[in-house]
Write a structure and sequence with these properties.
Among the domains are: about 140 residues, no CATH class; about 160 residues. The strands form six sheets. Strands 4-5-7-6-8 form a five-stranded mixed sheet. Strands 10, 20, 21, 22 and 23 form a five-stranded antiparallel sheet that branches. Strands 11-16-17-18-19 form a five-stranded antiparallel sheet, with no helix packed on it. The protein has ten helices and 23 strands. It has about 500 residues and is an alpha+beta fold.
């Protein structure tokens, strides 16, 4: 369960990274437009970071990315967290020394019987197993930091004095801020001048009308989940900057440009000396004060037509960023058709036709004769249908154990799906799928680690793969043979 969630987060962060880069580019192009436009675009990023669902549409600027989780399965041999840590350290050392020159990682594990054995794991399996715990630890650190920060602030405003409505005065605070989720309050330090207090309250009330205290909390939760992605940190900081600058512009637009000097002076006076990443409060002096003052200095109300045009373009861009191209981000799995048996000698190896040749013709390939003996599967003519002397070799094995005709790719023409042994001295069992109609073939093999054998499951008429340990012959996994993402794969199914 944890591994599946972690892989889903990796898929989401990969997609969101593309969206963040597009929004950053759009933000640069919109630098002369009101900041509420670019601030609204960060809502698309937030959706991508928190929601795994999306709508597919013919028009989308999101590219087709192969999901991290596609085709992934944990190593058949169980490995402990401690073992994963040792293996990950070894892989890191190898990376520093000569790059990732290893594919398999060997560690020792103690089984339930008390015996120590060597476990072979793919380095990707190890990193996923180890990384998911590092990911959880990072989330915990950020949440604890947030809880401690909020606890300290709540302690300071415990004796705040109500001014009016949801506005309070507090002695032990250095900067005005908004705090609270369900019933947020505005806290002001004592000693503010009447004019200064007026536009600071207006700034914070604008935050509340837009529900910025909720959006920032959601943004912080997204940061916690995707803390390992530097682009998410950049998005969190830039969205906060756009949020504050849009509020500054709203205040100046309402009270008049003549307050800009006093407003900028207040920003300098209440500038927070450190970044606030706890998700709350919304502090008046938060963010890059220099950028906020420079934005106020050059701000002027743009023409209405320019604002409408920019908002329309950003609205269209948001739709394109929220949608996925058809068929993207999920495994393109073609439902396999029913398999038609040609021959199967796995249960009676003595019946292999070592000297004889058996032939078959199928309606989908008129005029083509397929032949086999124990070592070869051939066709009577090439894929293009031209005549030639002799046969075209499709499969060579030592021997070929079984073969079926099955339309795995969904193009209406069946492929030849066969199990065979191969090698000299070191023999492994592998699966080959020959797409005769398109002149292509696909292999499923893992030499000296796993063997693969095809079988027909009568309950659904589909081909299934049994994956066994090369050394012990024990069953590791079993699943349906499918065609996905341009290759043949095992559709995961737990072995009994």
């Amino acid at each position: 369960m944890l591994t599946a969630v972690f892989l889903q987060v990796l898929d989401m962060t990969k997609l969101a990274s593309v969206v963040i880069l597009v929004v950053i580019l759009a933000r640069l192009l919109l630098r002369r437009m009101p900041k509420w436009i670019s601030y609204a675009l960060w809502g698309v990023v937030l959706f991508r970071l928190l929601c795994p669902l999306s709508v597919k549409a013919p028009v989308s600027v999101v590219p087709e990315l192969t999901p991290v989780s596609q085709g992934y399965a944990l190593a058949g041999e169980p490995i402990s967290l401690l073992g994963a840590g040792r293996a990950a350290a070894g892989a890191a050392a190898d990376l520093l020394n000569s790059g990732l020159g290893i594919q398999w990682i060997y560690t020792t594990e103690q089984g339930a019987d008390g015996l120590t054995r060597v476990v072979t794991s793919d380095w990707w399996d190890v990193w996923i197993l180890f990384g998911q715990y590092v990911w959880l630890a990072g989330i915990l650190v950020l949440l604890v930091h947030s809880a401690v920060s909020c606890g300290k602030i709540r302690k300071k405003v415990r004796v705040a004095v109500p001014l009016r409505g949801n506005i309070c005065l507090a002695d032990d605070i250095a900067c005005p801020f908004v705090m609270g989720l369900l019933r947020p309050k505005i806290y002001l330090p004592v000693g503010l001048g009447e004019r200064e207090q007026a536009y600071i309250i207006l700034h914070e009330q604008h935050h509340l009308r837009r529900r910025d205290h909720l959006w920032k909390t959601l943004g912080f939760l997204a940061l916690c989940v995707h803390w390992f992605n530097p682009l998410v940190w950049a998005a969190f900081l830039l969205s906060g900057k756009d949020m504050e600058m849009s509020c500054d512009e709203a205040v100046v637009g309402k009270l008049g440009e003549e307050i800009r000097a006093d407003y900028a002076a207040s920003l300098l006076a209440f500038a927070i000396g450190r970044r606030v990443i706890a998700g709350m409060p919304l502090a008046f002096g938060e963010g890059d004060i220099g950028d906020r003052i420079r934005n106020l200095a050059k701000w002027k109300k743009p023409a209405l037509w320019a604002v409408v045009a920019a908002a329309a373009v950003c609205g269209a861009l948001a739709v394109c960023l929220l949608t996925d191209p058809p068929g993207s981000h999920t495994a393109d799995i073609t439902p396999p058709g029913a398999a038609v048996e040609w021959f199967d000698y796995t249960d009676s190896p003595g019946g292999l036709p070592w000297d004889s040749v058996e032939t078959v013709e199928i309606p989908e390939f008129p005029g083509v004769t397929f032949s086999h003996n124990a070592e070869r599967i051939t066709a009577s003519r090439p894929v293009d249908g031209t005549e030639q002397d002799g046969e075209v070799e499709l499969v060579y094995g030592m021997p070929i154990w079984n073969a079926w005709f099955c339309d795995l790719t969904g193009d209406g023409f069946p492929e030849i799906c066969a199990s065979l042994s191969f090698g000299s001295g070191v023999i492994d069992n592998r699966i080959i799928v020959v797409d005769y109609a398109n002149g292509a073939s696909y292999l499923l093999e893992n030499r000296m680690r796993y063997d693969y054998v095809l079988r027909l499951q009568e309950s659904d008429g589909a081909l299934y793969v049994d994956q066994t340990d090369y050394t012990t012959g024990s069953l590791v996994a079993s699943g349906r043979l499918i065609f996905a993402d341009g290759c043949i794969q095992i559709q995961p199914q737990l072995a009994e």
